[in-house]
Amino acid sequence: xxxxxxxxxxxxxxxxxxxxxxxxxxxxxxxxxxxxxxxxxxxxxxxxxxxxxxxxxxxxxxxxxxxxxxxxxxxxxxxxxxxxxxxxxxxxxxxxxxxxxxxxxxxxxxxxxxxxxxxxxxxxxxxxxxxxxxxxxxxxxxxxxxxxxxxxxxxxxxxxxxxxxxxxxxxxxxxxxxxxxxxxxxxxxxxxxxxxxxxxxxxxxxxxxxxxxxxxxxxxxxxxxxxxxxxxxxxxxxxxxxxxxxxxxxxx
Length: 252
Fold this sequence. Notes:
Layout: E1 2-6, H1 14-23, E2 28-34, E3 53-58, E4 61-67, H2 71-82, E5 89-96, H3 108-118, E6 123-128, H4 136-153, E7 160-165, E8 176-178, E9 187-194, E10 200-207, H5 218-223, E11 227-231, H6 239-246
Parallel strand pairs: 1-2, 1-5, 2-4, 5-6, 6-7, 8-11
Antiparallel strand pairs: 3-4, 7-11, 9-10
């Protein structure tokens, strides 16, 4: 099996290295990742400037390809130019920080997986709750074991998944919950300050999110220490509105 591995934390991120080591148990791994951190870039792509791509070595061992672009750029280049054949699987991560709830829409990690799904390739975003002493090797090992099971159980169609792991799961044998993403809005605000020249600038800040408690979601399950797995789709059409809107008498 040929696996394309990427992330949004950059090619030197410890989570990427741990994921590469773990995925070698499943197949041949090609690493194509951003040259620098690209957290929060969402599904941006580069088309107004060239994509510089450089092979990175650790001594005589090739680590992968560093791309001066976004995670989605990395997947495009990996599929079209770098991998010797079409990948069987795209994995993005391990990200340092959860990508759950509405953050799925902002995440470069998830965007890379979505880009893989665009090509009809089963793709999985993998994230670990932020911790200064994150246990990336444990997280990657857990993720690789789950990925192997997902590939066995999912059926023949390509699928897109989002996998999140709380810090507490690194020291236990956690239960996995298949749950929907939460869509509650994060409490955001800006801190206003002045630079040395007297100009205003704003620093984005976020308040802790309070998930909806009347149903289980990725946020509620993670708060209880579960590993969460969410099947995603990128077709954003609100299908239940289509029939009603076709009856509208719209005029120009």
